[in-house]
Amino acid sequence: MLLYAFSFCYNPLLPKQLEKNDIVQTCHWFERKTSFLGSAPRFPSNLACGKRKNTWSVVTCVAVPQKKATIVQTTSPKTWSPDSWRNMPIKQVPEYPDKDQLEATENRLKKALPLVFSGECRRLKEQLAKVARGEAFVLHGGDCAESFSEFERYGGDNIKDTFTLLIQMSIVLMYGLRRPVVKIGRMAGQFAKPRSSPYEKAKNAELELPSYRGDMINGPEFNAQARIPDPVRMIQAYHQSTATINLLRSLAGGGFLDLNRIHDINLQFVNETPQGKRFLEYANSISDALAFMKSCGIQADSPNTRTPEFCVSHEALLLPYEEALTRYDEETGKYYATSGHFLWVGDRTRQPDCGHVEFLRGIDNPIGIKCGPSLATDDLLRLLDILDPENEPGRVTLIVRVGAGRVAEHLPRFVEEVRKEGRQVVWSCDPMHGNMETSKSGYKTRRFENILAEVKEFYEIHRQLDSYPGGIHLEMTGQNVTECIGGMMELEESQLSQRYESPCDPRLNASQSLELAFLLSELFRKSL
């Protein structure tokens, strides 16, 4: 017997109020085998379910505008389409005053070339599967939010410097961990940011305006006009992402970071720092090892030493942009978000019954889930049921962000329940978002000591639970900014104003990032 659940959900992106003649009923079938270790499937409490022959079937009838009722059957257990998220409740999506302009922008992007290709996404998933098995490590880093103005000011040098820094960090980690390092940049799409409040004030001022939500949505300038959401910004973000990916492909494939020229892989202003000098020692050791291999007749110029693999990622926040760049892959019969290789759902938008999770469940890219202190264990398991019904290694990365001093409170319950369900996931530590504070001068900042403390706690809890801490997720830049306090360079709160460039959250600078890589490498190496 089938039972029915009817849901009519508010969504601010619908072009008009639904009328009776616009409504069609679409049946969404959900069929799921019993869970991997025999525990019962988890469904939202508002769904009615009927059990028959060891399967679960649910029919949901939803109201949608007729022009959006494009239904495509995918390998996902219930019907999904790139626009099915529009039928769900949704958070952190702006109200665009000009709906016609929004629709025109979406149509332009639907005709645009993909930024990444499905085969690259599958390759990344294979690499992340190795991380899930404890055979590799993932380094994930880049800007809090990419900026139109910073791109124009640096002319691409900021991208080159952050890329170079990530490669340096990966070399340090590979040297210490004796494992391959999967390299993913928060680049070429990280233009939208969720905000804790819809309004914000200027530093030490009373004037309040709508919050800045990233250059893809509105402007950082503190005036009313700049804060109006403008859909045309999605086009500029797409073009900048295209330029960024072209530059990254050229850097990765053009011999710029050939390990046989490892002494050239260093940022100029880091050279004279303790971290830069220490990296030079690593470079000397690697050069000696490559020379020894050559003298033994062993090939030392393979593609792995000459061309580093590098992928791009961002938070899948602005779903009109993501939907418009979603493409069907004829070879596999699956959908891919071609806006980036890896997408994640944030701590503020990971509700199992809402639009962001609905969108991510239908694409075949590897995806991440931000796991903060407010995430209930049962909701985490429901998310895994929805987003990874086949328990595919490399599909899901759980990015834990709870704050220094709170890891022991939350990480064990995540790890133990996920393991109990037999799930194969990547465990990554985001030591940035749980350690934010506001300085006396009004700048948002983070303390290096707290970032390091959370990483150490994350590693130690995994060691105690006999689990593998497979990655780190950082907000960082290759520029010599002054946004985070501390580190070996002993940046003080009074120095924040010297070069605070982030329009959103503070980033580790190059020296602090490299220092963290050395400390993390030493921490892991002790257990080898």
Automatic annotation (TrEMBL):
The lineage of its organism: Eukaryota, Rhodophyta, Bangiophyceae, Galdieriales, Galdieriaceae. This is Phospho-2-dehydro-3-deoxyheptonate aldolase. Pathway: Metabolic intermediate biosynthesis; chorismate biosynthesis; chorismate from D-erythrose 4-phosphate and phosphoenolpyruvate: step 1/7. Coiled coil: none annotated. It holds the Pfam family DAHP_synth_2. The keyword Manganese applies. The keyword Glycoprotein does not apply. Its cofactor is Mn(2+); Co(2+); Cd(2+). GO terms for molecular function: 3-deoxy-7-phosphoheptulonate synthase activity.
